[in-house]
Amino acid sequence: MKPGIEERPVTFxxxxxxxxxxxxxxLPVGVTVLSGKNATNRTxxxxxIMAAMGSSNATxxxxxxEGHVELSAxxxxxxxxxxxxxxxxxxxxxxxxxxxxxxxxxxxxxxxTNEARRAxxxxxxxxxxxxxxxxxxxxxxxxxxLTDAKGEINDKLDTIESLKHxxxxxxxxxxxxxxxxxxxxxxLAETETRIDETNHSIEETRKDHDRLESKLDELRQKRADLAxxxxxxxxxxxxxxxxxxxxxxxxxERDELDEPSVETEAFEQRIDQLRREKRSLNNQTSDLQSxxxxxxxxxxxxxxxxxxxxxxxPETVGDVTGxxxxxxxxxxxxxxxxxxxxDEIEAMLADLRDIRQEKLDGIxxxxxxxxxxxxRKQEVERQRRKRSEIATSLSExxxxxxxxxxxxxxxxxRRSALTEAVETLETEVDxxxxxxxxxxxxxxxxxxxxxxxxxQLESExxxxxxxxxxxxxxxxxxxxxxxxRAELLDQLSDLRTRIDQIEQESVEQFNHHMDAVLEMLNYxxxxxxxxxxxxxxxxxxxxxxxxxxxxxxxxxxxxxxxxYEDTIDHLSESEREVTGLIFALAGYLVHxxxxxxxxxxxxxxxxxxxxxxAALVDYFAEHVDYLxxxxxxxxxQALDDAYNRVHEI
Length: 649
Hints:
Blueprint: E1 10-17, E2 20-27, E3 30-35, H1 42-53, E4 67-73, E5 76-84, E6 90-93, H2 101-107, E7 109-110, H3 115-122, H4 126-130, H5 136-201, H6 206-256, H7 264-300, H8 305-311, H9 314-317, H10 320-325, E8 330-332, E9 339-341, H11 342-431, H12 438-476, H13 478-521, E10 526-540, E11 543-557, E12 563-566, H14 573-590, E13 599-602, H15 610-621, E14 626-631, H16 633-636, E15 644-646
Parallel strand pairs: 3-14, 3-15, 7-13, 13-14
Antiparallel strand pairs: 1-2, 1-4, 4-5, 5-6, 8-9, 10-11, 11-12
């Protein structure tokens, strides 16, 4: 409910809606009774309230180009405008009070054609109706996302467990490398000592020695550079191999996806078309019902308003009473004035009822097709999103591969150049050797080799240390990952039980209120009407899946008090109407509409006797801020005199 309307009288200003020319009606908090005969714009006013709430199920007056509904309650003001469309439909603009009018249409606006109200009599799938406002696909998608996230965390935790086993090996490897480095340094120190001793005895060869030392230093540096280049090439090659494997995985995943054969625009066009057809059928059924009710009233009431109007001008029509009443088996048609057999009018009414039922069946078929189209559209959009994501990833990988290959090519050229340089330096060093200086040259080469080996070992040790630190950093994330996984498990538990909770609460609400209402209304030998929530196994393609269904039970008793189970078909019209209304009330409460939709509307209760209507209105009033009930005058008399009453619209 939007702010500004709670506990306030609400004023509706209506123009050109249904059969209303123009009217202003104020509704206080509580129950308002719209009393009067048929065809007195009560249903039209209910449609006006629906339009103000945000519903699109309102009709424009036949001779009007534009209609208006305004709602005022304190500082709150809502205005909506109705205009005809080129295809004969009605377009309603302006924001309504309720953000989700489709749910209100289902469980709050209980006019005669209301689907939730009629579900029991038609034998519809009660679970499907009660769960319709719940976006089950969205819940399932969210569950899948959380499940995927949990799987990723589990993979990381599994990796951490394996890392824990790697730590001792890496620590041992680092320790062994340190020992080997220390051993090489000791050997280097010994070699350098021998070089110093040899140099003292051949000072005169210092010049040649310096040249040799310089060449050896240069050789050592070139070898170190060459080793570094090789490591980089190995690392880049491994990176290219990983990228290539990921590229192949994405290509396989892309190839496994079906190419959508239908554009989503086609679905949207068909959905829009079906919605227009549904609105048109709703309007037609409403019009047909008005015609049926009016003709039934005229057929049953020999002293109707039309006949009284004719009797007011006897000089123009002659013996009006004789014309209207005719013979015992005929009546005077109130539209053309001719004498028509009563059974012909009854037959005409039966045809109209059949046509109206066909329209209602057509609405059900359209709703089923709409659900199927929406599901297919979602699947097409999901496939396209996935293909787009894969295409983006493939483009990124291709760019990375190109860059990595360029780097490898450059490194390969540098490696070739360094290899040639090392070979050249080795040749020059050998050229500086002579018989007199073989020992000192060998010692310098040994020292150079030891330094090179030490650098290699230190580099390897640094790599092991870096790997060890990286693994230890990952292990330190274990507590955070376990905490996040616990949060995901809680969220998954809530999502997985949300549907069950709504189903269970729906059944409990219906059974509770049905028991209370039946005890209050006291139908003969009707002990109980209740819903059982059962699980059944059904085939979904090649798989067997568990599916929840709502099974409605009727329990009656014999004169001796023996209980037995009956069927819905054997319920009286009054019993069916009450059951449908309680089912709608359960949906209203389960989906917390009392917090969003301040109005509940009741219409076409003639199948229920006046005393039971009064009791039912009292019961509904306990759960709704504003309850508006359209009743015939004789039925309205049974209601509490304290209720607000509107006699003219």
